[in-house]
Amino acid sequence: MQIKPILSALRHHKAGTILIAVQIALTLAIVCNALFIIQQRITMLTRSTGIDEAHLIRLQNQWVGVDDKHVGSLMQTDLDTLRRLPGVADAYATNSTPLSNGGWSTGIGLKPGGKGERVQTAIYFADDHTLDTLGLKLVAGRNFRSSEVVDQMQHDGLDPPQVIVTRAVADKFFPDGDAVGKRVYLGNKPSIIVGVVARLQVPWVGGWAANWEGRSTLVPRRLMASGTNFVIRAKDGQIDKVLHSAPAALLASDRMRVIPDDDGVVTFAQMRQEAYQSDRGMAILMGVICVVLLGITAAGIVGLTSFWVGQRRKQIGVRRALGATRRDILSYFLTENLLIGATGVVLGMLLAVGMNQWLMNTFEMQRLSWPWIVSGVIVLLALGQAAVLAPAIRASRVPPVVATRTV
Amino acid sequence: MLAYYLRLGLRSLRRNPMLTSLMVLAIGFGVAASMTTYAVFRAVSGNPIPDKSAQLYKPLIDNWGHANGRTSDDPPNAMDYTDAAALMKDGKGVMQTVSYPLGLSVIPADPKAKPFRVYGYATYADFFPMFGVPFKYGGAWPADDDARHAPVAVIGEKINQRLFGGANSVGRSIDIEGNRYRIAGVTRAWNPQPRFYDVNNTGGFAADPPEVWIPFTRAVDLQIPTWGNNNCNGRVAPGWDGWLHSECIWLSYWVELPDAAAAARYKNYLHAYAAQQQQAGRFDWAPNVRLYNVTQWLADQHVVPQESQVSLLVAMGFLVVCLVNTIGLLLAKFMRRAPEIGVRRALGASRGEVYRQFLAEAAMVGVAGGVLGLLLTAGGVLGIGMVFDPDIARLARVDVSLIALTLLVAVVATVLAAFYPTWRAARVQPAWQLKSN
Amino acid sequence: MLKMTHLSKVYRTEVVETYALRDFNIDVKEGEFVAVTGPSGSGKTTFLTIAGLLETFTGGEYLLDGVDVSGLNDNARSKIRNEKIGFIFQAFNLIPDLNVFDNVEVPLRYRGMKAAERKQRIMDALERVGLASRLKHYPAELSGGQQQRVAIARALAGSPRLLLADEPTGNLDTQMARGVMELLEDIHREGATIVMVTHDPELAARAQRNVHIIDGQEVDIAEDPRFHAEHAASSHV
Ligand SMILES: Nc1ncnc2c1ncn2[C@@H]1O[C@H](COP(=O)(O)OP(=O)(O)O)[C@@H](O)[C@H]1O
Ligand SMILES: [Mg+2]
């Protein structure tokens, strides 16, 4: 196929050519960035928390009219009630859990009093049942002993003698993998790392914890506050039953408490759903926009090419009369579209990178990687060829006899 | 003549239903995507208190400096107890309040009824007139009660309904966590969005209105902890008092100042206060203070969610593509009618008449696209809960102004898109007809 | 009515300059019926488009109704076309989307006439051309002769004082051509000035006066040698 005659034909309908190229360019820029946003969000929402979500329930409990100092015994009674419940494998009480988007964080380092290099870590209040309940695996060291678990008032400094940390924390300070037995500092007194777990995500799924979402620390403490979270592990297939029996059992043992009706008792599956709602929604929105955008661009190409075919019927007839085969006509239009598409995607790549740069500056988004642009380019060129196929086939069916007709 | 052009346009649009529906779909989708995301953006970026947003100010004092490896040059976005108490004592504004969020259990008088949770604020009497809280019964507690650390409360309509069947409960009492409070007032539903007065703890958006307020002084006496964020930097001595006198930030301070001059004076006052703290040796850095009005504060705290901004931008890009698409299709459609245009010109149509004829046709596409866009926008706003945080999504509404805007955007955008094709159409030479035989 | 002196028209394209008309002179009096003849490409259509204010000219002077038209803007020219001039094209040029009635209505619309008056005039014009029964037909449903009669009705509806026709019978068979010619003669008798370009010597002969154009210039048929040469050549074909 010769390109020169196509180029000179394109020069005759400059405006239409430019419009299609611009449309392809804008579509490419938007689709690349939208796909990239989708990918980022999906990476976010498929991250594991490290815990056995499928079997876990969170129960938010608030004791009423109790002095914080006396919470300890109430907590123990409730835990006994829960652990005895049929269908419950284990349970513990804590300040926060992964996917809850609210919790406690502090700096952790190798020197006391907040000096030296420190990184941010989430603090989870825990006891000797925590690892079992959450289904966390120790990769080194041991679990807390029940004797190590003591009460902690809300406003007192946090300096537990023992901690269990995630591998992300351990590797930060002890890259050789020998963290167990070493000292770290949350406050002013040292804490000995007694165990290391493979992974435990921090409570926050959003942006502010993005750089340290795996750095969690378990402390052997019972938080003396009138509100607490019970985490309950149900036995296989019992989770729906426990969802109802657990709050009922607690209320039966002591009515002076509040377990909120709406989100008081939820499974971790529900928590995940809620925590990542806006990420999933954003991915869906971007996906819908991509699909509709590609559809509209394809339809636009079909529309304009059909018009050109209609306009050039006579000319096509003349070519056919002069010996052009159907294939020649078909490939004429396909090549024409490819040329326009190529111009469009070159322009589009620049636009995509520019748009990404701008998004990076304004919204702390990551840099668009080449594979995304390349796949966008392929998608758009293929889309263009597919869109032009129908009108091109119609053009190739123009009979040579058209040449002899006047209009 | 307009009716004539509309009739001609309709006929022409009916002639290629494919092309016409393509344009209508493009405009409809483009406008709907933009309007749906705009509905959300409008809701989250609105001014929550338009009458007073320039009189309400948020003072910030840097009580952290660069201690403990902190790198930010901005003061923390909340206040510690020491500074809040000092500013409150000076009372330099027309009105001022300091508040923190509460999560409390209410124990109903009826022993058979279960206790339930309520959320609200510990604050000062000025809170209510400053922020324009509407009352159904009674009103704010008198300022004296703040000084007396009195057990009084303002409650919301919803718990008034639950506890008192909606009757006027002013003067009656409510049991909160075992303490009794005399009810001073019952508010109507009041939930300005964004929740400018408590951005620190809500990020700006909270679906449920606060339902209870008690004096700040009373709450501190009872050692009721904050239900919101508490961020500490540096040492905290044990116990409630240790915490109160730490540099932990957990309080939201607001002051009402009548005008810019007063604001400038207040800023000087803050500066002087910080300088005094520096001299006293509490801060070992130069005074670093801020004074934001409501809109500045919302902007500073980036209250408008990133999702909302990005999706609005992407949707607008989408609309632009749809318009480019429409330009192309209109161009094809109009230029196919070059012979007709030539004849009309030869028969005496001026360029203006050609413009009017074709813009009228485009406007009809715009109206059809707008109607489709309206339906899709309505669907989009319903479905937006899937995409955005429900606290935010429920703020997006289809109201008269959104309907009008959708139609306007559709028609204006289409007519703009039609300008180039129409210009080309109007340039068709009248002689074209004779020469092209 | 129509007076051109030393008129010239140059078409400039990227490669060539074409003199479609050069030093062209003509004077058509009110009420005359002039036939314009000449070989293909000699500038007949160009003359007509300039006479009808469809195009501007490059040099010389053109007085229409005693008014110098060179200074008029596009709107003024449109108005004159609409009110004073009627066009009949070789290819009829009816608007395919509009039915007969609506086609005839087009120039009246631009004149801002009341609906009742428009209707009256359209019916009168269609009656004249014998197509009053075909109001609702679309151009595609009419024969060539009928289409041209609709085109004439459209030209007549506005009661123009000057009727310009470019080979109005070129696309018609002899029978139909004669019908159209008779119609034009009728119109002329009622006082309209008609300028008609034609190839057909028989039709040309029926006009009051013949103007011959060769290479963009008006020539005297009797004297110009080019005419004889061309005439001889064409008679061989
Ligand atoms: N729009 C134009 N652009 C360039 N050249 C033109 C144009 N219109 C006419 N011409 C040239 O002007 C000359 C006269 O054309 P025309 O008036 O159409 O002749 P006729 O009608 O006598 O056949 C021809 O040589 C033709 O090629
Ligand atoms: Mg000609």
Write a structural description.
The complex is a heterotrimer of chains A (407), B (437) and C (237). Chain A has 407 residues and is α+β, with helices and mostly antiparallel strands. Chain A has helices spanning 4-12, 14-45, 71-84, 130-134, 167-173, 239-253, 268-275, 277-311, 313-321, 326-363, 370-396, and strands at residues 56-63, 88-94, 104-109, 118-125, 138-141, 150-153, 162-166, 183-185, 190-197, 216-219, 221-224, 227-234, 257-258, 265-267. Chain A folds into two domains: 3-45 and 278-405, no CATH class; 65-255, no CATH class. In chain A, the strands form three sheets. In chain A, strands 3, 4, 5, 7, 8, 9 and 10 form a seven-stranded mixed β-sheet that branches. In chain A, strands 1, 2, 12, 13 and 14 form a five-stranded antiparallel β-sheet that branches. In chain A, helix 2 crosses helix 10 (326-363). By secondary structure, chain B is α+β, with helices and mostly antiparallel strands. Chain B is built from 17 helices and ten strands. In chain B, strand 6 and strand 7 (179-187) form a beta hairpin. The mean pLDDT of chain B is 90. Chain C has a single domain, classed as Rossmann fold (3-Layer(aba) Sandwich), CATH 3.40.50. Chain C has helices at residues 44-51, 74-84, 100-109, 115-128, 144-157, 174-189, 201-205, 225-236; strands at residues 2-12, 17-28, 33-37, 59-64, 67-68, 85-88, 162-166, 193-197, 209-214, 217-219. Chains in contact: A-B, B-C. Chains A and B meet through helix 2, strand 13, helix 8 and helix 10 of A and helix 2, helix 9 and helix 12 of B. The site of magnesium ion has 2 residues of chain C, from helix 1.
Q: Which terms summarize this structure?
A:
heterotrimer; A: about 400 residues; alpha+beta; 2 domains; 7-stranded mixed beta sheet; 5-stranded antiparallel beta sheet; 11 helices; about 20% strand; elongated; C: about 240 residues; alpha/beta; Rossmann fold; 6-stranded mixed beta sheet; 4-stranded antiparallel beta sheet; 8 helices; 10 strands; about 40% helix; globular; binds adenosine-5'-diphosphate; binds magnesium ion
User: How many extended strands of chain A?
Assistant: 14
Could you spell the SSE succession of chain A in H and E letters?
HHEHEEEHEEEHEEEEEHEEHHHHH
Structural class call of chain A reads: alpha+beta
> How many structural domains in the coordinates of chain A?
2
Shape of chain B: elongated
